[in-house]
Amino acid sequence: MELNVLLVSLLPMDEELFSEKGQVKDITLFEQALGCAKERDDEYSIKVYINDQLNGYMAGVISKKSSVKLHDRNFKIHNEENFPPVVWLWDRSEQVILIENKTSVFSNAGVAAKTFSNISNNIILAERGLRAHVNPKTIDSAFWETFESFEYVNEVKFNLAAPNLFGSTKKEIGEFLHEVVDETNASEFSPVFKNPDGNLNLKPSSWLNAMVDWVKDGAGTWSISGKRTLKDKYKKIGSKTRAKLLVIDGDITELELENYEPQDVAEIVQMIRHRYTFKK
User: Closest by alpha carbon to 150, among 227, 58, 233, 253?
Assistant: First the structure.
């Protein structure tokens, strides 16, 4: 079975108003939003089978409406709605959704992430002035090897997704990233370093390594513009990101999930958590 890894962050829709009202920032609100999303009448459908509020695990199925052509007794074609189930698991400690990679329903991890974003941003979060940001965890190429391969570098750019603000991952990536988001309420942060003469000089440091690590852990991208000789033209190389895919033995079907206990979900998540964790 293949699983895509989706990262979840919560941000205030209006930081000033959020602070004035003394609202509570709590990732469990995202869980509540998923729980109440079952009452829907649109193109999406979600069902929660396991909701372990104490230990922070959830599991269920999700789908997006499609249409299938069927033949009736008189061999006339008619269309029927179809919601093929896709299995998902929730790990509160990492603020991560693990979703079955079923491209016949969600063509890629980005579409799956958008679906969870649409479903979770409902009245539960809106009443508390929060918005959920869901993005696929990605895999990237090596930043420093790329930078050092150029003799002349005129631009380095990062595009960083907002950190998981309300979970235990906050201290793991670098306080400065969180300070930027806390002060600006930005869902993305894109610092650019430039030197038109090609003499950009970046060296490993705590704040720069924090950005590189954040991309390496799957929540952003980088690009480097440089050249190897003075006569060359500048070319841009970006982090070769692709959605992180976990492969686990066996399959979890909808019917099996219906009979799962919370401990069964916990065991599955704990068994594979080391393959997507943000904790170093």
Answer: 227
